[in-house]
Structure formats: C-alpha cells, structure tokens
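Figure 6 in text form: structure in, sequence out.
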C-alpha cells in the first residue's frame, strides 16, 4: 500500500503562494476570517473610519477633537498675561525682582529669604504683598 501523501498548506504572500505548516495556515485563515467578520460587522452597523474622511487638506484623524489639549483661546490669553507679567516684572526695581524671583521661580519661602537677607520676615512679606498688589492693579487695568 502506498503511503498517503501529506496535504500541503499555502498562504498568499505578496501575490505568491508560500507553503507553510498546517498550524500557520489555520491561524492565518482564522485571522483573515476574523478581519473580514469585523469589516462586515462595521459595514452592517454603519461604522465609519476616520481615514474614510481624508481629503487633500486634512486627514480624518486630524478631525478628532483632542479634549486633553488646551483650547487656542486659553493659550492666547495665557500668552497675553505672560507678556503683561514679564513687562510688569521688568519695571520693578532690582531688589523687587530678586524677591519675586526667589519666592516664585526658585520656590524659596519668605522666612528663608528673610533669614538669608537678615531681614524681619514681616518686612519680606509686606514687600511681597505690595508688589503683588501692584501686579494685580496692572493686570486689571
């Protein structure tokens, strides 16, 4: 008796049939069938891919709103405020600028700054309060 020939399995890769083991053949066609099933399901439910909305000017994915990003209006307002604050800071005296710099940009406490300058804490606090009040008036005008 002649031994039965073992069945050969093929998958199409870039237009060519390639012989593969049975397990790979089955896995490939299961994946292929799953992809077709999902496509059919999307078509049945009227699912639209963002890539279907692509045109010459914009891709469909660029139309997806990004709720985590900051609104353009908020960015513009922040820039204007930053410019006004920097303009205000540039008009302060050197000692006022130094006080604001160490308190707000270096994160030093009023008490520590007062100790470094051998100045009473309340003097530093009052100076800071006066500077911030001038800033508030400047920003509200």
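Output sequence:
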């Amino acid at each position: 008796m002649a031994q039965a020939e073992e069945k050969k399995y093929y998958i199409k890769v870039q237009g060519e049939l390639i012989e593969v083991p049975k397990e790979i053949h089955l896995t490939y066609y299961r994946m292929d069938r799953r992809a077709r099933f999902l496509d059919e399901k999307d078509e049945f439910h009227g699912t639209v891919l963002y890539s279907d909305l692509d045109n010459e000017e914009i891709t469909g994915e660029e139309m997806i709103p990004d709720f985590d990003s900051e609104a353009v209006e908020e960015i513009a307002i922040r820039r204007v405020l930053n410019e006004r604050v920097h303009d205000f800071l540039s008009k302060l005296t050197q000692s006022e600028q130094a006080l604001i710099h160490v308190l707000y940009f270096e994160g030093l406490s009023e008490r520590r700054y007062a100790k470094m300058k051998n100045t009473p804490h309340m003097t530093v606090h009052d100076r800071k309060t006066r500077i911030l009040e001038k800033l508030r008036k400047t920003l509200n005008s």
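Caption detail: The chain has five helices and two strands.
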